[in-house]
Design brief:
- The chain has 138 residues and is α+β, with helices and mostly antiparallel strands.
- The chain contains four helices and five strands, in the order E-H-E-E-H-E-E-H-H.
- The relative contact order is 0.25.
Length: 138
């Protein structure tokens, strides 16, 4: 199983409706391509992990990179793993700019940190730790 983690910034901040529209489209496409993952959004920035066959994930990444709603896409980590970490999610999603009381207590470590902070770009395990916090959301 191939995985890839990237960070990007939105050209303009997404409204709740725009995020929901994006998610609906992504979930359908990911289902068709057998891709799973998790998307985090905070302050106009995205962090996403994608899992699936390497060719499918790389094809999706190319489409995301060409999407004019994104800029500054940076791949933080990629490689092969024995199994999917987000198998239950065609695309799990958490909006981190909402009510932080509803987030796991461990999230406090990341509360004041932008998704584009160098602590993520220079330490892939930091990204994985944040993404894993949300594996079991409802």
């Amino acid at each position: 199983m191939f995985f890839l983690v990237y960070l990007s910034s939105a050209v303009t901040w997404f409204s709740s409706k725009e995020l929901n529209d994006l998610l609906n489209t992504c979930r359908q496409r990911n289902l068709e391509a057998h891709i799973t993952g998790m998307l985090l959004y905070k302050d106009g920035n995205f962090m996403q992990v994608l899992e699936g066959e390497e060719s499918a994930v790389r094809k999706l990444l190319a489409r995301i990179n060409a999407d004019l709603r994104h800029r500054g896409l940076v791949v933080i980590d990629s490689g092969h793993t024995a199994q999917r970490e987000f198998a239950q999610w065609g695309m799990g999603f958490v909006d981190l700019q909402g009510d932080t009381h509803a987030l796991p207590p461990e999230y406090g470590e990341f509360l004041g940190t932008s998704l584009t902070d160098s602590s993520f770009s220079q330490n892939p395990e930091h990204c994985h730790k944040l993404l894993r916090m949300f594996r079991h959301i409802d």
